[in-house]
Amino acid sequence: MTSASATDVPAILLSVFTNISECMQKNASLIQKAINDGAFDAVAADAPAEAPSGKKKRGRPKTKGGGDDPQKPKRTKSGYILYAEEERKTMMTETAMASLTPKEIMTELGKRWSGLGVDGKKVWQDKAQVLKAEAVAAFSTAADAAATAAAAAATAAVATAAAAPAAETSTAAAEAEAAAEKKRRKAAKKALKQAAASAGQTPDAAGVTAAIASAAPAVAATPSEKPAVSEKKKKKKADKESRKQNQSPAAATSSA
Predict the structure, then answer these.
(1) Which one, of 209, 207, 206, 185, lies nearest residue 197 by Cα?
(2) Please, which contacts does 30-36 make with residues 24 or more away whose CB atoms are closer than 8 Å?
């Protein structure tokens, strides 16, 4: 193997870098073509989801809707918030404070709050405690009202459930009594008819009513229903007797 001369080294390096440049240009063209053809879309869709980092988020967990916990009293303003709301109004009237940014205003409020001292801060902290006590009392009243309403609803539901079997029993007893009364009335009427037939008589309306009343004294007979039936049968029997009497002379004449 022959060694290259010093004059050949620059030419060799130039050839190497030229080949590298051409390869990179070709690779870039191939990659661009693959992107245009959508070759990387399937790869991105099949990529696994990002695993959770395992880090815990700081701060209070947010409740649904971003509001306070419905099982606890509503959060009230702290002593510092009450002081800041009032002091901000005073600061807005000061010429030197009118040009401050919100961040600078909050910084100034913090300085003024720190300068109040223990006694000055206690005034606002006492106001915050009063607001908190009022919120707790309102929450307790609402909770008691809700508990009372729930107890009343439960009592009404229990009473309704207890009254349902009693109503069904009462209805069944009334139906059974009506059926028994119907049987007694029917038996009394049948017995009266049989007694009248044995004596060769037709039971009148008064007799039927009396028989039914004696068999079932708790229920009176219907005067508009029973007498009408008795009168109809009485008239039918009278017509039958009349036809028999009319047929008897004719039969005697034909035999003579």
Answers:
(1) 207
(2) none
Pairwise CA distance, residues 106 & 113, whole Å: 10
The radius of gyration of the chain's CA atoms, rounded to the nearest angstrom, is 55
Pairwise CA distance, residues 41 & 29, whole Å: 18
What does the block give as tokens for 208?
């039927």
Which tokens in the block code for residue 11?
Answer: 């030419």
CA distances for 142 relative to 68, 131, 132, 146, 168, angstroms: 15, 17, 15, 6, 39
Q: How far apart are CA 145 and CA 138, in angstroms?
A: 11
Which residues of the chain fall short of a pLDDT of 70?
A: 1-7, 38-69, 162-167, 199-230, 248-256
For 239-254, the pLDDT digits (tens) are 888 887 777 655 555 5
One-letter amino acid for residue 141 of the chain: T
Q: What is the pTM of this model?
A: 0.36
Measured CA to CA, the distance from residue 256 to residue 246 in angstroms comes to 17
